From TrEMBL:
This is Transporter. Residues 1-15 form the signal peptide. Keywords: Signal. It comes from Hylemonella gracilis str. Niagara R. It comes from the Bacteria. The lineage of its organism: Bacteria, Pseudomonadati, Pseudomonadota, Betaproteobacteria, Burkholderiales.
Length: 241
């Protein structure tokens, strides 16, 4: 149950970055808020609801997540996790951004929690100037996941890292039918969590200010028996008066 539960907690804590595992070194402006919802589907169905706000120099996120197995014989047919995320980022110059993030996840069912997950992450974003319209961005993450096993379960540490390349083409490169929908981005990422490696390819359509529609496909590479998994997500701005 521990590894399955950690996966739920890990994705719960990543509300700020949506369902993508590799986060960027940017944060919401003060008093700007977004709500996000996404679902992942494979041998289990994963539902996520979250919200994030810029509060002074940091971004604060809260989330809840529920995973249900489609296998009627599963020992753990469903799990629920709650997450809290804090993120700080600073633009060193127009090309480079640095950041730090902390994520806390709790197993919400059964109660009291059997374990908690603390994640620490360093963030780096590079938008090279040789791309005239800043179409490309490279994101790097490196950190650690610390699992606190309650009831004498002990602590376990797992290194984590990820790299992502994001391409946001100029609208002139795309058909009018696509640009009429919004700003398109294409994302590829490779990441490691809990001694397992994954690949993900996805697209994002930016709608208005801070609004997104995301679709991606995740594939386990090594250290996991999980096959492919589709994700669909929506991010919407919230008005704070």
């Amino acid at each position: 149950m521990l590894l399955v539960g950690m996966a739920v907690l890990a994705s719960s804590a990543q509300a700020a970055g949506g369902h993508h595992a590799v986060d960027d070194a940017t944060i919401l402006a003060p008093r700007a808020c977004v709500a996000d919802a996404w679902v992942g589907d494979s041998a289990t169905t994963l539902l996520h609801l979250g919200a994030s706000c810029g509060v002074g120099p940091v971004e604060v996120g809260l989330s809840a997540e529920h995973e249900r197995s489609l296998n009627s014989d599963s020992d753990y047919p469903s799990q629920t996790g709650l997450g809290l995320g804090l993120k700080w980022a600073h633009a060193v110059d127009p090309e480079v951004g640095l950041g730090l993030s902390y994520e806390l996840g709790l197993d919400a069912r059964p109660f009291p929690p059997e374990y908690a997950l603390s994640s620490f992450n360093g963030l780096f974003t590079w938008t090279p100037s040789w791309s005239a319209r800043r179409e490309y961005a490279l994101h790097l993450n490196i950190g650690t996941d610390i699992v606190d096993g309650r009831n004498g379960g002990g602590d376990e540490d797992y290194s984590r890292w990820g790299v992502a390349l994001e391409w946001t083409p100029d609208g002139a490169r795309l058909p009018a039918m696509m640009t009429d929908m919004g700003q398109w981005s294409f994302i590829g990422e490779r990441f490691r969590r809990f001694e397992a490696d994954y690949l993900r390819l996805g697209l994002r359509i930016g709608v208005g200010r801070n609004g997104n529609i995301d679709i991606s496909r995740q594939q386990g590479v090594s250290g996991t028996d999980e096959g492919g998994r589709w994700f669909f997500g929506v991010t919407m701005p919230l008005e704070i008066r």
